[in-house]
Q: What sequence folds into this?
Protein backbone atom coordinates (compact mmCIF):
# COMPACT_ATOMS: atom_id res chain seq x y z
CA UNK A 1 0.00 0.00 0.00
CA UNK A 2 1.30 3.42 -0.92
CA UNK A 3 0.11 6.76 0.47
CA UNK A 4 1.23 9.88 -1.37
CA UNK A 5 0.49 13.44 -0.28
CA UNK A 6 0.81 16.24 -2.84
CA UNK A 7 1.28 19.95 -2.24
CA UNK A 8 0.71 22.15 -5.29
CA UNK A 9 1.22 19.15 -7.55
CA UNK A 10 4.54 18.10 -6.00
CA UNK A 11 4.80 14.92 -3.93
CA UNK A 12 5.60 15.89 -0.34
CA UNK A 13 5.05 12.63 1.54
CA UNK A 14 5.47 9.11 0.17
CA UNK A 15 4.67 6.26 2.61
CA UNK A 16 5.02 2.65 1.54
CA UNK A 17 3.61 -0.20 3.63
CA UNK A 18 4.03 -3.86 2.63
CA UNK A 19 0.61 -5.37 2.01
CA UNK A 20 1.59 -8.62 3.72
CA UNK A 21 2.33 -6.71 6.93
CA UNK A 22 -0.93 -4.76 6.90
CA UNK A 23 -3.21 -7.61 5.86
CA UNK A 24 -2.34 -10.84 7.65
CA UNK A 25 -3.98 -13.11 10.20
CA UNK A 26 -2.18 -11.54 13.18
CA UNK A 27 -3.35 -8.07 12.17
CA UNK A 28 -6.88 -9.46 11.72
CA UNK A 29 -6.86 -10.92 15.24
CA UNK A 30 -5.57 -7.68 16.77
CA UNK A 31 -8.14 -5.61 14.86
CA UNK A 32 -11.00 -7.91 15.90
CA UNK A 33 -9.90 -7.67 19.54
CA UNK A 34 -9.66 -3.86 19.37
CA UNK A 35 -13.10 -3.55 17.79
CA UNK A 36 -14.59 -5.88 20.39
CA UNK A 37 -12.99 -4.00 23.31
CA UNK A 38 -14.04 -0.62 21.93
CA UNK A 39 -17.66 -1.52 21.32
CA UNK A 40 -18.12 -3.53 24.52
CA UNK A 41 -16.25 -0.94 26.61
CA UNK A 42 -18.45 1.84 25.30
CA UNK A 43 -21.58 -0.23 25.91
CA UNK A 44 -20.69 -0.55 29.59
CA UNK A 45 -19.94 3.18 30.01
CA UNK A 46 -22.86 4.73 28.15
CA UNK A 47 -26.34 3.87 29.42
CA UNK A 48 -28.27 5.99 26.92
CA UNK A 49 -26.86 4.38 23.80
CA UNK A 50 -26.55 0.89 25.28
CA UNK A 51 -29.25 -0.54 23.02
CA UNK A 52 -27.59 0.78 19.84
CA UNK A 53 -24.13 -0.41 20.84
CA UNK A 54 -25.31 -3.91 21.65
CA UNK A 55 -26.92 -4.01 18.20
CA UNK A 56 -23.59 -2.98 16.68
CA UNK A 57 -21.68 -5.55 18.74
CA UNK A 58 -23.77 -8.36 17.24
CA UNK A 59 -22.43 -7.45 13.79
CA UNK A 60 -18.73 -7.26 14.72
CA UNK A 61 -16.61 -9.46 12.46
CA UNK A 62 -14.54 -12.06 14.25
CA UNK A 63 -10.89 -12.76 13.49
CA UNK A 64 -11.75 -15.58 11.04
CA UNK A 65 -13.88 -13.24 8.93
CA UNK A 66 -11.21 -10.53 9.02
CA UNK A 67 -8.54 -13.10 8.06
CA UNK A 68 -10.65 -14.11 5.06
CA UNK A 69 -10.98 -10.44 4.10
CA UNK A 70 -7.21 -9.95 4.40
CA UNK A 71 -6.63 -12.99 2.18
CA UNK A 72 -8.94 -11.57 -0.48
CA UNK A 73 -7.24 -8.16 -0.33
CA UNK A 74 -3.82 -9.76 -0.84
CA UNK A 75 -5.19 -11.85 -3.73
CA UNK A 76 -6.74 -8.74 -5.29
CA UNK A 77 -3.42 -6.89 -5.02
CA UNK A 78 -1.60 -9.68 -6.86
CA UNK A 79 -4.15 -9.55 -9.68
CA UNK A 80 -4.41 -5.74 -9.82
CA UNK A 81 -1.11 -4.11 -8.84
CA UNK A 82 -1.19 -0.32 -8.40
CA UNK A 83 -4.97 -0.27 -7.92
CA UNK A 84 -5.98 3.24 -6.83
CA UNK A 85 -8.19 3.15 -3.72
CA UNK A 86 -8.50 6.91 -3.17
CA UNK A 87 -7.40 9.90 -5.20
CA UNK A 88 -8.50 13.33 -4.03
CA UNK A 89 -7.21 16.72 -5.11
CA UNK A 90 -8.41 20.26 -4.61
CA UNK A 91 -8.29 23.20 -7.00
CA UNK A 92 -4.86 24.28 -5.73
CA UNK A 93 -3.20 20.97 -6.56
CA UNK A 94 -3.06 19.66 -2.99
CA UNK A 95 -4.21 16.09 -2.61
CA UNK A 96 -3.82 12.51 -1.49
CA UNK A 97 -3.47 9.29 -3.47
CA UNK A 98 -3.72 5.86 -1.85
CA UNK A 99 -2.88 2.81 -3.95
CA UNK A 100 -3.11 -0.81 -2.95
A:
Amino acid sequence: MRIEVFDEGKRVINLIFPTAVLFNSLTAKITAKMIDKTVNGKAEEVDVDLQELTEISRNIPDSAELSALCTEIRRFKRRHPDFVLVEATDSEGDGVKITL
